[in-house]
């Protein structure tokens, strides 16, 4: 599947506000997804993504947000190790765990799956596709209303204005 198709699927799943060109490729400008009012356990996550749960002692633990940037990962968040054009999120798993991630979604091909301790690990075939499945599940089960902002220019400004307007209601 090419990057453009992935971008379209991600937008439909509610994962990102836009994709931007980056040296001939596409990249997501989102690095975090706030789960909000729902809380998921790792055994539920494995079922949603079609993954396999490792460290099953943590199966009943839950997470409250999602991150793909280990630098901004917070306590009780789920870190998705995404392979990108320049970086591989699997290289930053240890950093995400040090920042307090309560779980990791990594690809089955990652050779160090057995060495990740103290956090739940959901092993999947494709971590990007697993993130899309989680976003789809969230959209389908959330009672939140979603606003889509599209176009070539002014999305960030419009997003900030819409956020402030909606927040006051």
What does this structure look like?
- With 169 residues, the chain is α/β, with parallel strands linked by helices.
- The protein has one domain: Udp-n-acetylmuramoylalanyl-d-glutamate--2,6- Diaminopimelate Ligase, Chain: A, domain 1 (3-Layer(aba) Sandwich).
- It is built from five helices and ten strands; from the N terminus they run H-E-E-E-E-H-E-E-E-E-H-E-E-H-H.
- It has a six-stranded mixed beta sheet. The chain has a two-stranded antiparallel sheet with strand order 1-2.
- Helix 1 packs parallel to helix 4.
- The longest helix has 15 residues.
Short description:
This protein has 169 residues and is an alpha/beta fold.
Please supply descriptive tags for the structure shown above:
5 helices; six-stranded mixed sheet; 10 strands; alpha/beta; 169 residues; two-stranded antiparallel sheet; disordered N terminus; Udp-n-acetylmuramoylalanyl-d-glutamate--2,6- Diaminopimelate Ligase, Chain: A, domain 1; globular
